[in-house]
């Protein structure tokens, strides 16, 4: 198991709350998943477009990240964003980090990294569309844990490019093949 999962699994039952079509309510399903892991989170009031944001902090092996679940209920979509705690400085470092992220994205099966060239914010995004179906607890887990684990895995590469003078190619190689002392560390994601 990766560092974002608790060591002991909790048995979870599906929520009894349902939407107008009889499917489990998206917000209730997300809350049920988060509550089962005793996570601390904040639910922001629904916006005019019918979406609800759930914010939390996740701590991995390499850093602490802000995570946001954006429930776009009218569209039957859930988007998850995990933000890097470090913004990339303007100039050459931002261009180098964009190259790093594109090299990483090319190999990913789910989700992707993105960079905001206006302010240097880096985040990992993943989404699921549940139109005609319902959001399951497993979908919530996958859509939260994949971005969190991927951001944590590649965070050292990002730091190596920004502050360590490494090239994107060298930084990604080191992130994919960490030294044995780093690879064997065991921690739990909270």
Characterise the protein shown here:
34% of the residues lie in helices and 21% in strands. It is built from five helices and six strands. The protein has helices at 26-36, 92-105, 137-162, 168-176, 180-183; strands at 41-43, 51-59, 64-72, 77-83, 112-115, 122-129. The protein is elongated, with a radius of gyration of 18 Å. With 190 residues, it is an alpha+beta fold. Residues 5-19 and 183-188 have low confidence and may be disordered. The longest helix is centred in the C-terminal third of the chain and has 26 residues, at 137-162. Helix 2 packs across helix 3, helix 2 (92-105) packs across helix 4 (168-176) and helix 3 packs across helix 4. It has a six-stranded antiparallel sheet with strand order 1-2-3-4-6-5.
Structure at a glance:
The chain is an alpha+beta fold and 190 residues long. It is built from five helices and six strands. The chain has helices at residues 26-36, 92-105, 137-162, 168-176, 180-183; strands at 41-43, 51-59, 64-72, 77-83, 112-115, 122-129.
Shape: elongated
Class derived from helix and strand content: alpha+beta
Sheet with most strands: strand arrangement? 1-2-3-4-6-5
Total DSSP E strands = 6
Run of helices and strands = HEEEEHEEHHH
| Average predicted local confidence, pLDDT | 84
Tell me the number of helical segments per DSSP (H or I, 4 or more residues long). Answer: 5
Please indicate the percent range of residues in DSSP E strands (runs of 2 or more).
15-25%
**What is the gyration radius calculated from CA atoms?**
18 Å
**Spans of at least 5 consecutive residues with low confidence:** 5-19, 183-188
As a percent range, the share of helical residues equals: 25-40%
The biggest beta sheet reads: 6 strands, antiparallel
What is the distance, rounded to the nearest whole angstrom, between the alpha carbons of the first and last residues?
13 Å
């Amino acid at each position: 198991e990766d560092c974002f999962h608790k060591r002991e699994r909790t048995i979870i039952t599906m929520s009894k709350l349902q939407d107008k079509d009889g499917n489990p309510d998206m917000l209730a399903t997300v809350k049920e998943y988060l509550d089962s892991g005793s996570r601390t989170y904040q639910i922001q009031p629904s916006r005019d477009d019918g979406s609800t944001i759930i914010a939390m902090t996740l701590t991995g092996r390499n850093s602490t990240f802000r995570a946001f679940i954006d429930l776009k209920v009218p569209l039957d979509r859930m988007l998850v964003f995990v933000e890097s705690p470090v913004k990339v400085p303007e100039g050459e470092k931002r261009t180098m980090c964009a190259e790093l992220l594109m090299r990483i994205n090319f190999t990913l099966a789910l989700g992707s990294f993105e960079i905001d060239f206006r302010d240097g914010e880096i985040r990992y995004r993943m989404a699921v569309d549940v139109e005609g179906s319902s959001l399951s607890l497993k979908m919530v887990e996958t859509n939260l844990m994949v971005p969190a684990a991927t951001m944590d895995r590649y965070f050292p590469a990002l730091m190596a490019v920004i502050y360590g003078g490494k090239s994107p190619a060298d930084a990604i190689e080191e992130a994919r093949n960490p030294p044995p002392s780093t690879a064997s560390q065991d921690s739990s994601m909270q």
